[in-house]
Input
Amino acid sequence: MPVIPGVMPLTNVDQIERFTAMCGAQIPALLRAALEVRRGDPEASLQLGVAYASLQCADLLRRGAPGVHFYTLNRSPSSRAILAALRAAEPWRDAP
Output
């Protein structure tokens, strides 16, 4: 059975900090710094989350992941934006 990676796009700085604290995950230092700069700007936080997740998903697909599962938390616009970026880039075509 294939393993399908799950991605949760960042949409809110406070929310992702609470979530990572609950599950013990860590936010990479560079991403944490980028989030901190955008803490007071919800639209900028959303854009960063879409960009970061788009890069993650493209890398996963390029490396052969059979697909990606999005954890939307009832916030589908960011997932739709990521899907649009992936469709435009078609990273699976570059897979080895």
User: Anything to note?
Assistant: The longest strand covers residues 6-7.
